[in-house]
Fold:
Amino acid sequence: MWVYDLETLRILDVNEVACRKYGYSRDEFLALTIRDIRPPEDVPLVEESVRTTPAQTFNSGVWRHRLKDGTLINVEITSHEMIYMGRRTRFVCPIDVTQRVRAEAALREREAGLRRAQLVARLGHVITGLGGAFESWSESLPPLVGLDPEQMPRSTREWMNQLLHPDDRAAFRAKTLEAAVTGARVDVEYRLIRPDGSIVHLQQVIEPLDGHAEGPARWFSTIQDVTEQKQAEARMLRLNDELEQRVLQRTAQLRVTNHELAVAKVSAERANRAKSEFLSNMSHELRTPLNAIIGFGQLLNAADGTPRTSEKQAAFVGHIVKAGRHLLTLINEILDLAQIEAGRLSIVMDRLPLADVLGECEAMIEPLAAQRDIHLQFAHPGGATVTADRTRLKQVLLNLLSNALKYNREHGTVVVECSRPNAERVRISVRDSGIGLRADQIDALFQPFNRLGQEAGTAEGTGIGLVVTKRLIELMGGAIGAASTPGRGSEFWVELRAGDAAQESMSAVAPTTAHAGTSTDEASTAAQVATVLCVEDNPASLKLVQEVLASRADVQLLSASNGRLGVELARAHLPSVILMDNNMPEMSGREAQAILRNDPRTAGIPIIALSASAMVGAADSGTAAGFFRYLTKPFDVADLLAALDDALKLVASR
Structure:
């Protein structure tokens, strides 16, 4: 079976059976058009058939196909049109009927031979007189029935009693009496048993030869051996039965194939949607830190005469560096994930002392814990060993530890424990005292770019670290899991193959504690003429907007960290203009804009979209949905100010 494009005639898909039958590899087959498997002299007919065959034609007859080695075969084509890979195509199921065609040709030849045999060896005749006596017969008649001339019966009665099959004698007697009484031509078929026991089928035509006033006196009987014809009819019936069975089987296979194609189509559509969502999320995550980098860079480079203190410039640089590091982490994790998915990530498995690996991780994570005054407690694994890649195992553990610190509460704890679920496995658990996760959040843990609602928090993240962690653990033959109690914390664990089968003691040691203070950013706004509401979940992006508008004496800025809060503030303060991010927790910017547009109190407020979604058609779709302007992150400061001025002019003109 295969599918070909009705425009180009190129073969788009083929099954393995066809590849083997035609002698091509799959790649070779997919490089062909349907012209290439036809004899050159048949190509015009093929092209004409493609143009004229109706869409629902299921059988287009028998064609000649050419195998890779040049051999020609006869195939019966069953096909119908379908949409495949977005193209107008035809699904083809060719059945090899070469043997059947040859058999049919042989049957035709045998029938012609039988006609010729009427003039030579396959026909005989006998002349019968009154009383049924044989007066004479042709020389071909004795060999026809397997007798020597001297063994020939001498009358119709002897012919019937000596040679005819017992089951056919009554019918033969009735026909001969009919011929004698009516004087008309009579045809009769019967079986004859030769002396050697073989049975032949004969067809006899009895015709009056001459007669007198009382009726015919003599009859001429033409006797034809129709054994081969009877056998051919039986074979044809058998072939027809076999062909019907094959058609039923092919039809059933076609149904199965159509079902598989439908399932494959659904799977491909699902994969395409997942790819689009991944690319959209990745674009958003890349553009968010780029927005801060480019925006604060523009502020540092602005020549508008606005004085900026060294502290403010240092803050701008700090935002740029922080966003750059976040961007670097994101890119590294995306590259890791891409390498894993492409199967190009090298894993070097070794027998590792677990104490060494945990010690290195503790030393690296301790300064981060000290910054938030989080207590670390590492269990001592004794002499336990695991089979893993040292670098990748450290990457996995550091990611889990970093998350445990990042999403923990101030002065919280992180506990690392080791255990042996069985003699073959070692489990490493990382338990924190954070806010915990709900069951639905646990189910979505390992989805790319899903931060489980933490996008609006102060802790930066990419949402793909756990995806990479899971892939790495699985590449090393391990497993990963999580459990959590909302309000009490979460526990993440990984299991790896033990380096040996011996039971080893695991004992806890005193916790390692670090202390550090925290810092906060303060910002203030002065009362201005026009109120601008900025709805933005990303702190760096919000800070950028604040700095852009800090030099504007004609506006005062309000801010909201999600769409729901933005709607509430808009209804409470009725701002002149709203700057609205799109991808936010609780309520997206587009949803918030629709709510405000349908509220008579806020319907006239111009809403400028600030979105990291740069997919094709996003801007047109946004303006069609009712946004006043649609700016894509990272946006140009001048573009933002120009859009704001246009919105304020619109409001002033009303």
User: Anything to note?
Assistant: The chain has five domains: 2-96, 107-225, 253-327, 346-508, 530-652. The two ends are 68 Å apart (CA to CA).
